[in-house]
Amino acid sequence: MKDKTKALWDKQDQHKGDRWRLFQAVSAAEPARRVLYAGSYVDVAPSFVYDDVTYADTDKRAAAFFADADGVRQIIGDHGGNVNGRIEFLHGDYRSLDLEAESFDLLISLYAGFISEACGHLLRIGGLLLVNSSHGDAALAALDPRFKLVAVVTSANGRYSVTDQNLDGYMVTKKPQTITRDSLSKSCRGIAYTKSPFAYLFERVR
User: Fold this and answer.
1) Alpha-carbon Rg of the chain, whole angstroms?
2) CA distance linking residue 154 with residue 163, whole number of Å
3) CATH number corresponding to 3-204
């Protein structure tokens, strides 16, 4: 493994095993075969859990990281993942990925913009979008008729849990406001809700 590869992963994994625990919890609740992680940077943690993951990012450091295939697979193996699983990195803008529509079971959107809008068509009907509130993408997904909120991911003491209970209590704004695609685009910020889970799971329903 190249020193640069290890250094990039160590910086990503500042809270040791945090993302690993996240994807373990999501996978246990909602298994998926093919996964797309748009705006991934060097977060290879999905491959600790899933056997078929496509990553996409514009960052040159991410491209260099994934180019060290042996190093990446060593990281995956060190975390219990399948070193023979399928890993693909696409170096480019996730808004123009040349991928087959409706071909993924899970779409990951964490801290990388309006992925639900740009890549939602790549998720199969019945597939899941894992999205947090960063940049307003969770709020945008809630406005999108293609998606339905089916669960939330909560975090406590470094552990993650997925629940589909009392979903009406989530995505309730702290103050009355009208949320639109334009308002989210202008602010590029998450909405202040009365409850703040780590992330949301939306099902693609149309």
Assistant:
1) 17
2) 8
3) 3.40.50.150
Share of the chain above pLDDT 70, in %: 100
Which has the closest alpha carbon to 136: 197, 194, 187?
Answer: 187
Distance CA 82, CA 77 (A): 6
CA dist 151 and 132 (Å) reads 12
User: How much of the chain is in helix, strand and coil states, percent to nearest 5?
Assistant: 35, 25, 35
Residue 106 phi/psi, 5-degree rounding, is -140, 130
Parts of the chain with a pLDDT under 50: none
Convert the pLDDT of each residue in 17-27 to its tens digit: 999 999 999 99
pTM, two decimals, is 0.96
Q: What is the pLDDT of residue 17?
A: 97
Phi, psi of 109 (to 5 degrees): -130, 100
CA distances from 61 to 64, 65, 76, 133 (A): 5, 6, 18, 25
* pLDDT value, residue 188: 86
